[in-house]
From TrEMBL:
Transmembrane segments: none annotated. One of its GO terms (molecular function) is cysteine desulfurase activity. This is Aminotransferase class V domain-containing protein. It comes from Cochliobolus sativus. Pfam families: Aminotran_5.
Length: 378
């Protein structure tokens, strides 16, 4: 199969360098390129000023073009100049775009997603020089980190229309779900009938962080990174939704052009970034193995290691056969038109090949109704 070359990122960066030639864009991240300054008077006046190579490039871009990077779109990629300017942008595209056949196209966004390079840039200082414990109240290292964490908390609250005091940082979705279960148990426990939650005897309450709901030392880079992701999401969600919807429709229309192919879920009321399709007379796991150049899954992200048919699809009314033949395509903000086209061509070719190996497909092609056949077990 043809390779996708040159990569989208390299092409965009070459075009950008021709349009905006300037030594200011050289990535010389020496000592002067990454400095941070902290007010050390008292915690209430703590301020953080991080001067990094990415910020210097953003200022140079504005001086050179008269446009803010966040308002400019790089040619061919559709990505904002703000994101493409990031030191992480090249790594991101090398990892997600197939280059000389060395990397598969990534369409497994329900399992995990590539991080926006601006989020990485926001997190990096707090993984290197600004490593203070936000709960340390006696020195500037703690103050600067606490200030950044609270800014992140405010960004997340602003995204969902909540009060910053309502945002509780946990280790992830599992802990958040467990917290919700405990909350419900305590609520119903007020009715007089005692409820029990089974825990280990070594369980302890910790130091009372996160308003006593989630004790334990906070991970500042994670909280700060989520805050930056929330800020970007609030600004770009509408555009991303429209773009992902267009890519989703393009993919879905191409897949459904194959006969005996169905969409799992409602066409109008499904999340466009998740396209789950069943290819009749093709085993889903076999199709995944045939599509080694594309990263996909056949089940939910938390049960992808199981060979059982998706319980989600069965709950939606799909038969075991349909669930077994399903493939999930995940589309994200960095998925490109060329990747969708490549995936369509590859899937059509492999589905056609695998069906030709299936005796059931041969019967269907001969006009036999499989529902009228009585299958004997051996």
């Amino acid at each position: 199969m043809p390779n996708i070359a040159p990569t989208i990122a390299r092409q965009a960066l070459r075009i950008a360098s021709r349009r905006y030639p300037s030594p200011a864009f050289a990535r010389t991240a020496g000592a002067a390129a990454r400095r941070h300054y902290v007010s050390e008077s008292k915690s209430s006046q703590a301020t953080v000023n991080v001067d990094t190579a990415i910020k210097q490039e953003q200022r140079a871009f504005l001086d050179k073009t008269g446009e803010r990077p966040s308002d400019a779109t790089m040619p061919t990629t559709g990505m904002g100049a703000d994101a493409m300017m990031s030191p992480s942008a090249g790594i991101l595209k090398q990892a997600t775009v197939m280059d000389q056949g060395s990397r598969p196209i990534y369409l497994d966004m329900q399992a995990t997603t590539p991080m926006d390079p601006r989020v990485v840039d926001k997190m990096m200082p707090f993984m290197t020089g600004m490593y203070g414990n936000p709960h340390s109240r006696t020195h500037a290292y703690g103050w600067e980190t606490d200030t950044a964490v609270e800014e992140a908390r405010a960004n997340i609250a602003n995204l969902i229309g909540a009060d910053p005091k309502e945002i509780i940082f946990t280790s992830g979705a599992t802990e958040s779900n467990n917290m919700s279960i405990k909350g419900v148990a305590r609520f119903f426990g007020r009715g007089g009938k005692k409820k029990h939650i089974i825990t280990a005897q070594t369980e302890h309450n910790g130091g009372g962080q996160e308003r006593g709901l989630r004790s334990g030392t906070l991970a500042p880079p994670l909280a700060i990174g989520m805050g930056e992701a929330a800020r970007i999401c609030k600004e770009e969600m509408e555009y991303d939704t429209k773009r992902i919807t267009a890519l989703s429709n393009r993919l879905l229309e191409g897949l459904l052009s194959l006969e005996h192919t169905t969409l799992n879920g409602d066409r109008e009321r499904h999340y466009p970034g998740c396209v789950n399709v069943s290819f009749a007379y093709v085993e889903g796991e076999s199709l995944l193995m045939a599509l080694k150049d594309i990263a996909l899954s056949s089940g939910s992200a938390c049960t992808s290691a199981s060979l059982e048919p998706s319980y989600v699809l069965r709950a939606l009314g799909s038969s075991d056969e349909s669930a077994h033949s399903s493939i999930r395509f995940g589309i994200g903000r960095f998925t490109t038109d060329s990747e969708i086209d490549y995936v369509l061509n590859a899937v059509k070719e492999r589905v056609t090949f695998l069906r030709e190996l299936s005796p059931l497909w041969e019967l269907v092609q001969e006009g036999v109704d499989l529902n009228t056949i009585e299958w004997s077990q051996h």
